[in-house]
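Morning. Coffee machine broken again, so started the prediction first thing and wrote up yesterday's gels while waiting. Chain of 573 residues, entered below exactly as on the submission form.
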Amino acid sequence: MRKIRELLQNFRDRLAHYDALPQLVVLGLLSGILTGFLMVLFRLAIELPLTYWLGHPDSFESLPQSQLFWWPLTGSLILIGIYFRWPALARQTGMVNMFERLAYHQGTIPGRSLIMQFVTATTALVSGHSVGREGPAIFLGAACSSLLGQRMRLPNNSIRLLIGCGTAAAISAAFNTPLAGVIFAMEVVLLEYTLIGFTPVIVAAVAADLVMRSTLGYENAFQVPSFEIGTLAEVPWIIALGVTVGLCSAFFNRLMIKTIAFTQWPVASRFLLAGVLTGIVATFYPQVMGVGYDTISESFQGNIEFTLLFGLLIAKLILTPIILGLGIPAGLIGPTLFIGALIGSIFGEVGSWFTDASMSHIGLYAMLGMGAMMGAVLNAPLAALVALLELTGNPNIIFPGMITIVISNLTVRFLFHMPSIFISSLQAQGLDYSQEPLAQVLSRAAVASLMDREFIATEPKTLPETAQQVLALKPRWLLLQNPNEKALSVMLPKNLSEYLSREAPTEAINLLEIPAERFDIIEVSYRSTLYEALKKMDELRINVVCVVSNQGDIMGMLTRSKIEYYYTHKQAL
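Came back before lunch.
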């Protein structure tokens, strides 16, 4: 047991360094396996009851007309009961909360949040609310990986990367798109592309995909024919599609942010309103219920008539952001794919009305709209393009996909000045997720990677001979500490050496009184990142902190100059 503890401590110590690639790969593998099994449970929790009641997880259209209204309302009532029983957990789920935990809590997510997200998201999806399962899946993967880091007492820089691993693993398992999961984790969650960061995230995504394939088998999320653009004359129409999707994305984001203002209402009022609205809309358009992957597949085939396409688009585009803004605990990635596919299908059909030339199949436009909507709402163009490629398995989609995704993102970003829906939601709550370059670099390593361990603890009152013996050991720091008491101060050995050579004392000296530069004992946990340590130094206007273990023992000293040198000379690529 002692040997295991020593190995684990060495593992932690190595992870404090940003370039601990073998250790990070191990973490990525553990994160991917655990997240993969959690995604299997989450998917079964949704699909098994729906298959039992409906015959198929996406067959809400098969419900009798009289039940379409009551299904989402019943789900809302169950959610109200859950939230009344555990009111403190009401705001501790969802991707916005995940970003908040990353920005303000070093990525630590409580285990109770994982349980609450699993139960509430399953309830919302099984009851047919107009939401997606990908957002909750991402939170579950991030929370599972964060808990792994917390249980192992890893440095905070590792927990931050573990959340990226959990995100990639969740998307990989949910969509069977490992590469899109990696890009999404780096582009949206970690906000950086680094060589060291990519490797464990890739390992996590692949491991989760293998777990999903080996347990539930491999199945494409959508039934996708192989289409390609017919002629370059369609490019202006594809650009117009990108602009339209951008406008719809801006409307989606703006409506959801406006609805978030109603979170001051009681939970019962908000959830009842969400259930009633979903029930009313579902009475006319039952396709809006649930994730709607079957409807997306139908749009690829061009099997949905125009009037139904238009009606579904209006219903989904208005209903989903309102439902999510009211606080229904589920995701928005699936609905954005649904809305984008509908917009693309409408464009594909309308385009054939106004030209004699042979237009590309309506399914191609549905695919393009799907990727463009995802990229614009999430402000993740590269992740959207990769997801589009992996979901369709069609390399011919890359060229027109680039056009629509770039145009839709430009429309949202520079015409409406809107960031991603997650950042907008955080800003609506008075929070921020942006990180300056200094914070990004210093968050990659923990304080243990730079701390100076060469110190000696000595009593404040000591004999000159004892002081000389301490100096002979050539420590970098002197920790002034009474026996069996807390440390009092820190000083530099050179100050003691100068005093002894200058004064040549013959009696006991008090190191707390001799002329010297002494530093107060300001503690930071060995799990803290360099950025956390620097923030503490700035707040207290100090230049030295003491790194302490979980037991409160001082492990070493860290100076501002070391952090500054790391940033200016030793930034990891």
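The longest strand covers residues 554-559. Going to sketch it on the whiteboard this afternoon.
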